[in-house]
Amino acid sequence: MNQPWNAFCPTLTLALVLTAAAAVAAQDGTEWRSIEAASIAYMQLPGGEAIIELNAEFAPTTVAQFKRLVRDGFYDGLAFYRVVDGFVAQGGDGSDMADPNSEPMLPAEFERPWSGELPFTSVQKPDMFAPETGFIDGFAAGRDMQSRKVWLTHCPGVIAMARNDGSDTGSTDFYIVIGQAPRYLDRNLTIFGRVVSGMDVVYRVIRGPSDANGMIAEGEPSTIIEKIVLAEDVPVAARKDVRVTDTSGAEFGKVLQSRKKRGPPFFHHKPPEVLDVCQIPVATRIGR
Amino acid sequence: MNQPWNAFCPTLTLALVLTAAAAVAAQDGTEWRSIEAASIAYMQLPGGEAIIELNAEFAPTTVAQFKRLVRDGFYDGLAFYRVVDGFVAQGGDGSDMADPNSEPMLPAEFERPWSGELPFTSVQKPDMFAPETGFIDGFAAGRDMQSRKVWLTHCPGVIAMARNDGSDTGSTDFYIVIGQAPRYLDRNLTIFGRVVSGMDVVYRVIRGPSDANGMIAEGEPSTIIEKIVLAEDVPVAARKDVRVTDTSGAEFGKVLQSRKKRGPPFFHHKPPEVLDVCQIPVATRIGR
Q1: What is the pLDDT of residue A142?
Q2: DSSP string spanning B150-187?
Q3: Domain residue spans of chain B
Q4: pLDDT digit string (tens) for B65-87?
Q5: Topology of domain A37-240, CATH
Q6: With a cut of 0.85, is the ipTM above it?
Q7: I want to staple A21 with a disulfide (CB 3.0 to 4.6 A). Which of A230, A251, B66, B154 is the partner?
Q8: Which residues of A touch B153 (CB under 8 A)?
Q9: B184, B190, B267, B280: which to substitute to probe chain A, counting the most A Cβ within 10 Å?
């Protein structure tokens, strides 16, 4: 692994940097951030488990309803009924596409006022889709200091509420981004979490036909959400210790800098010194 | 499917536009482009088949060697030995990571001179990573009219040759992009094709550990490339008719325009009028 001829030297270097950071973290505890049980949901799919970090800072009402629905067993046995390869996997009871169910509709939580107390680590200014991008607690975010707004951005792995035309019409059905970041959806839908582990499992979800907007017809094979469980509802001893890179830490700042300044020996054409916030890995560590 | 409250109206609309375009195509033949057999490879993986379009326009030497290796059965039975979730799945004999094999090294085919004869459909100018992006025969591309260069860009589904530090050190092992577009690799590696069908199959490839740069240790489970076959080597009657959206057609131009100008009733916050070239679907139709 330390051979200089590694096909992706820059990536390898980064991986080593991350490993070094982990060691540091073990000493001073600054590099990894433990996710509290109140913000974790385990989603059991046929291919394995996806772990979701919920974000009540940006979507308090949506997270509260999602947690209540999870506790009610609402999602258990329901399907990903609309899956567009390279875009989104949408799951739930389909009420979003047909007759509404009886669950309350949710107010839009598309953005929030900027607060200096949020641990915003700047990544790119300007970005093509936002005046500025950065990370807040591992979540990719956009920021506009002129209007003093901040929002979560649509990167792969993000989970958000589907809705109808009205901004306050989401209720139960959600989608997970499984393709190139559809950033044009930013500030138009409520992102309430992200998959921090098990995206490979999510990518196994059965796709719908692209000429039917990904809608899977009744009787056709689809992937079932076997169960969603909140970490809070699992005995403490059985909970997983989920840690993500502390994106406000100094080590992560160094990673951002090294990714921005790529050069020899691997790079023969110097890439522009810009970063796509959705292309920066935020590492996760799972323990017991 | 025609309900106005569809959770992703704009996408739905696009799907309908594409469907309409298909109908047009059946009449005047302008909207779909048939891929010639000489540019098609079928990759058999445990989860199914991925169809690759090779691009000899941009990477003639690499495509020639890849086709020869495929005919030699070089890849059959080899593994995806380095798989980084959200980044790349790299396959081959591992020679790229260890002792080189005896296959010839390939000259860099990272970019080519701009030629007015290329059917370039402009998408975004400027783009964060290139002075301009666009499509050439369904492939996302970057263009710099100042240096008069054009290149294929690293979007999801792209297949490119891995290499060591030297620009001319690729030979056999390739990677497929399975995550958010790593655009910083543009003009530094030889993209020689793209998966036009079966990305869901590619996404099933077993990942390596993220703290080992995705390298799968010997003895650990990995996904095997069962077989790669060139369409040319299959009897004409057994070949698939693979068509992709004609990205130089008028209908595709309209799709680009509609994606750039999003608004009510679905969009409450108007997205910036920019397009990420890697986020624009190019549809594929498979027949017999």
Answers
A1: 98
A2: EEE---TTEEEE---SSTT-B-S-EEEE-SS--GGGTT
A3: 9-287
A4: 999 999 999 999 999 999 999 99
A5: Cyclophilin (2.40.100)
A6: yes
A7: A251
A8: none
A9: B184
CA distance to partner chain B, nearest, from residue A242 (Å): 15
pLDDT tier at A99 (50, 70, 90 boundaries)?
confident
Tens-place pLDDT, residues B148-193: 999 999 999 999 999 999 999 999 999 999 999 999 999 999 999 9
How far apart, in whole angstroms, are the C-alpha atoms of residue B110 and residue A269?
A: 9
Inter-chain contact B97–A266, Cβ cutoff 8 Å? no
A–B interface: beta-carbon pairs under 8 A: 203
Mutate to test the interface with B, among A32, A123, A184 (most CBs of B within 10 A): A184
Cβ <8 Å between A259 and B184: yes
Q: Helix, strand, coil: what percent of chain B each, to 5? A: 25, 30, 50
Closest partner residue to B7 (CB to CB) among A19, A90, A130 is A90
Q: Do A188 and B269 touch (CB under 8 A)?
A: yes
The verdict on domain B9-287 having CATH code 3.40.1160.10 is no
Alpha carbon distance A57, A60 (integer Å): 6
- How close A254 comes to chain B (CA, Å)? 17
**Facing B180 at nearest CB: one of A3, A156, A166:** A156
Strands A48-54 and A79-83: unpaired
Give the closest-approach CA distance of B54 to chain A in angstroms. Answer: 20
Is B181–A276 a contact, with Cβ atoms under 8 angstroms apart?
A: yes
Mean residue pLDDT of chain B comes to 90
| pLDDT exceeds cutoff 80 at B16 | no
Contact B165 A9 (CB under 8 A): yes
